[in-house]
Amino acid sequence: MKKHYWFILLTYMLMQLSGVAGIRLFHYLDIGATQVERFAYWTIFSFTLAFIIILFLLRKERKNESLLRGEPSSVGASVGWAIGGFLLAIFAQSLAANIEINLFGVEPGSENTEMIVSVIEVTPLVIIVTSIIGPILEEIIFRKIIFGVLYKRTNFIIAGLISSLLFSLLHGEPQHLLLYASMGFTFAFLYVKTKRIIVPIFAHVAMNTMVIIVQTVFREDIEKMMKQVEDMQQVQVIIGGLLT
């Protein structure tokens, strides 16, 4: 692996592990009125700083340089795959979610997403991290570097499996391992197909942005809809009891 890739991985790990110390520092400096605000401000600061450092470490990379074999797709094809990849990611996530619910009995919903939404409601600027900076960093780390290095030495299945498992575990929701892994495989496929890291980055950014918009702008409508579904299920249970 290239030397600067090790520094990029180290930067990303330090960013992920800096939360507790960062929140304490902001408390000492009296930055933020509440713990949630301090967490939000530190998230924005640490992700932005890591983003700048990682881009600086990647400055010497040639345009579209990657560890993948073959020539990058044309601009037109890449745009098509970026848009199609976003739709493919939605399909893969929906399929994985249904498998989790129906086959493994996993409760729907994500505590990670709910926590992020609650932080965004307090500090809307966090959406820049969740929708843009975060996905870009994850694609650089898990697709460009980890997947790329493994793919060069093995094959798509092994590289995709290892990088997707690491990607899943990072989100701290082992019950949704299949859900996150399906997205990891989808983004890895887009990277291999186009040889351009910008393609899975676009799909990932679009995916996160859509989720945040749905969970914030349309949150009340979703809660009303879920309440109606629950009421309908209760009615069905009552009717079922009467009929038996």
Question: What can you tell me about this protein's structure?
Answer:
This protein is mostly helical. Helices cover 80% and strands 0% of the residues. It folds into 2 domains: 1-61, no CATH class; 72-243, no CATH class. The longest helix is centred in the middle third of the chain and has 30 residues, at 75-104.
Q: H/E element string?
A: HHHHHHHHHH
Number of strands: 0
Number of domains: 2
Mean pLDDT: 88
Number of helices in the DSSP assignment: 10
Helix content: over 70%
User: How would you sum up the major sheet?
Assistant: none
Beta-strand residue percentage: under 5%
Poorly predicted spans: 232-244
Report the end-to-end length measured between terminal Cα atoms: 66 Å
| Radius of gyration of CA atoms, rounded to a whole number | 20 Å
The helix-and-strand class reads mainly alpha
Q: Shape from CA axes?
A: globular
InterPro entries: CAAX_protease, Rce1/LyrA-like_dom
GO molecular function: endopeptidase activity
Protein name: CAAX prenyl protease 2/Lysostaphin resistance protein A-like domain-containing protein
Pfam families: Rce1-like (PF02517)
